[in-house]
Amino acid sequence: MTTSDAKGEANKRLAETICRRLEARGFTAAYVESAQEACDAAAEMIEDGALVGIPGTVTVRETGLPERLEEKGCKIVEHWTPGLSAEERKKALLSELEADWLVTSANAIAADGTIVNIDGTGNRVAAISWSPGKLLFIIGINKITPDVESAIKRAHTTATPPNAIRLGRKTPCAETGLCANCNSPDRLCRVVSLLERAPIGRDCRVLLVGEELGY
Fold first, then answer.
1. CB atoms closer than 10 angstroms to residue 48
2. 15/13 Cα distance (integer angstroms)
3. Which one of 127, 155, 179, 194 has the lowest number of neighbouring Cβ atoms within 10 Å?
4. What is the C-alpha to C-alpha distance for residues 128 and 172, in angstroms, rounded to an integer?
5. 118: part of which helix (H) or strand (E)?
6. Phi/psi at 106 (nearest 5 deg)?
7. Can you give the pLDDT at residue 82?
8. pLDDT at 14
9. What is the DSSP code (8-state) at residue 74?
10. Cα dihedral 159, 171, 178, 154 sign
11. Strand partners, 102
């Protein structure tokens, strides 16, 4: 077996282990090898014409899913859409919350199945915690950490600096690439969500992808 094959098999076994732990916590979870397979699987799950909220997530966009869903006649709601006024952005945020499907990712997922996210405004973690529609996470293999403590650390130190740079925020981590646990007005790490179980009454699904995706 080649080094690449061995790494791929290790990723598969790791993801399948996490999927079993997620299933025990009330999620429907599956492993797919690639971003393309994640896109295919998600597009098959989501009904034609559905209203789909996609909050701030680089991972989901890297799969090409928004474009694929539009081809299926789905209406995509994204507060990331360029050129929105403040009022239009507020309306988009509320529409994401009320959508038939919320499709997002995670900043990290602990080996026990706890899903960790950190927000600046809290819109994404609010919708993950409670919204009337179905919930789908698409999570790259790079987001898995040994435990909850390291998952939270990953959210601060690995996910946030590039996100701050992408958004043009004036934070220490955007300048240095290192988390300084700052008190900057532009700080993105403000609201932490630990999803220890699937919320009561929610249809919650996870696709773990055997590729690195997102931050």
1. 10
2. 5
3. 194
4. 28
5. strand 115-119
6. -145, 150
7. 76
8. 94
9. P
10. negative
11. 53, 135
Using CB atoms within 10 Å of the CB of residue 22, give its burial: 0 to 12 exposed, 13 to 18 middle, 19+ buried: buried
Pairing of strands 115-119, 191-195: antiparallel
pTM to 2 decimals? 0.94
Tokens of 78: 């994204």
Provide CB contacts within 8 A for 167, sequence distance 6+: 188
Distance between CA 68 and CA 58 in Å, rounded? 16
| Interior/surface letters 145-184, b for 16+ CB within 10 angstroms, e for the rest | beebebbbebbbebbbbebbeeeebebbbbeeeebeeeee
197 neighbors 203 (Cβ within 8 angstroms): no
* Confidence at residue 3, expressed as pLDDT on a 0 to 100 scale: 81
List the chain residues with pLDDT less than 70. Answer: none
Q: How far apart are CA 215 and CA 212, in angstroms?
A: 9
**Largest alpha-carbon pair distance within the chain?**
56
Cα separations in angstroms, 113 against 78, 80, 144, 195, 206: 27, 28, 9, 9, 11
